[in-house]
Specification:
Layout (H helix, E strand, L loop, with lengths): L5 E4 L8 E8 H5 L7 E5 L5 E4 L7 E10 L2 E2 L6 E4 L9 E5 L2 E5 L3
């Protein structure tokens, strides 16, 4: 996992023809917004997906379910992840008399 992406994976489900991944920004469900989650559906033969739309420092909910011609299976348990915050900025060092002062913009 990085500040902008995460690789999620799951075990293969017998007889599944595709998988659906739901991604929801925790800020949306905490605020009570009825924003539809991002839902992706595909065959994903390697049972992994790289999510590249994350915002640093934001918590996300992921879940997956399998589909085939006869219907849709139940959702997995929720996976809650916090995208890594951005790296600290470069510090500024200055001298004040006999002291060295280190400051960060963030």
């Amino acid at each position: 996992m990085s500040a902008n992406s995460v690789l999620i994976g799951w075990d293969e489900v017998d007889n599944a023809s595709s998988y659906r991944i739901e991604i929801k920004d925790k800020r949306e469900w905490d605020a009570g917004h009825e924003v539809p989650p991002a839902i992706l559906e595909e065959a994903w033969p390697n049972h992994r997906y790289q999510v590249k739309i994350l915002h640093p420092g934001v918590q996300y909910r992921f879940r997956v379910h399998a589909n085939n011609g006869c219907g849709t299976g139940p959702w997995s348990d929720d996976l809650i992840l916090l995208a890594c915050p951005s790296a600290p900025s470069r510090p500024e060092i200055r001298q004040s008399g006999t002291d060295l002062i280190v400051d960060w913009d963030d």
